[in-house]
Amino acid sequence: MLKFRLLCLCLITVFAFSFLLSAQEIKTESLPKPNINGRNSSILKLLENRRTHRQFSTKEISAQQLSEILWCANGVNDTISGKRTVPSAYNWHGVTVYAAASNGLFIYEPNEHSLNKISDKDIRTFTGSQDFVKRAPLTLIYVADFGKMNPKSKTMNDDKRLFLSAIEAGCMVQSVYLYCASEGLNTVVRDMVDRDALAKQMEVLKPKQKIVIVQTIGYQD
Ligand SMILES: Cc1cc2nc3c(=O)[nH]c(=O)nc-3n(C[C@H](O)[C@H](O)[C@H](O)COP(=O)(O)O)c2cc1C
Q: Which domain, by its residues, includes 126?
């Protein structure tokens, strides 16, 4: 019995010591405050102002703004390598940006930096269940093309393709958020969309092309 008690005491002591040691390892170090007006003020100020807004007027955004939004989302920032404003898994660039506006549905071609009309149909109402989607002048539809995402490893499958393209689309979304913060435009990224219904309305998507997420942009109501 004494032996058992001694063993218990030893075990409790060992656990207590290891707990105290691990607790000591976690140190809180306060960081210097981001210097919003300092050397990197332009990016820090945009991040400070980045916000989701859900009020939209029908006011159109200008052609210049549209061009810059698309360039931020997926534009070529190095014409020699063809690389973009956003990173891409395996440099696949498997996510394409479509634009739904009152005058139709368009596809953005990064290499030509052009916006090509696919149809005259106004499908904005199908881009989400929230009321403002019909009114806001622009919704970007981020579409992953699994056909472009060829296996680079044995573990590649559609779950991983969706995961990687969601991250790529997320980078695009944030670029557009920051642009909107700089231009005084409202924006909201949205999961609240019936992807099957929207894909049907788009009419051009093949089975391997999946709607990842949508993002609405416009002026304050
Ligand atoms: C992946 C994702 C999906 C989202 N889906 C919706 C949505 O369907 N509708 C909506 O109004 N907001 C949506 N949001 C916006 C979030 O509600 C918003 O980012 C959050 O409330 C934080 O607010 P903030 O962006 O102003 O910091 C989404 C955000 C993310 C990242």
A: 58-218
How close is the Cα of 52 to the center of ligand 1, in Å? Answer: 7
How many whole angstroms separate alpha carbon 130 and alpha carbon 151? Answer: 37
Distance between Cα 50 and ligand 1 center (Å): 12
The pLDDT tens digits of the residues spanning 65-116 come to 999 999 999 999 999 999 999 999 999 999 999 999 999 999 999 999 999 9
Distance CA 68, CA 45 (A): 19
Does ligand 1 have an atom closer than 6 angstroms to the CB of 53? no
Structurally, the chain folds into a number of domains equal to 1
How remote is the CA of residue 53 from the centroid of ligand 1, in Å?
A: 9
Task: List own/partner pairs for 101-104 with CB under 8 A and 24 or more apart.
Answer: 101/137, 101/138, 101/139, 102/60, 102/137
Q: Give the CATH number, domain containing residue 109.
A: 3.40.109.10
Domain membership flag for residue 87: yes
Both tokens of 203, joined, read 């009419």
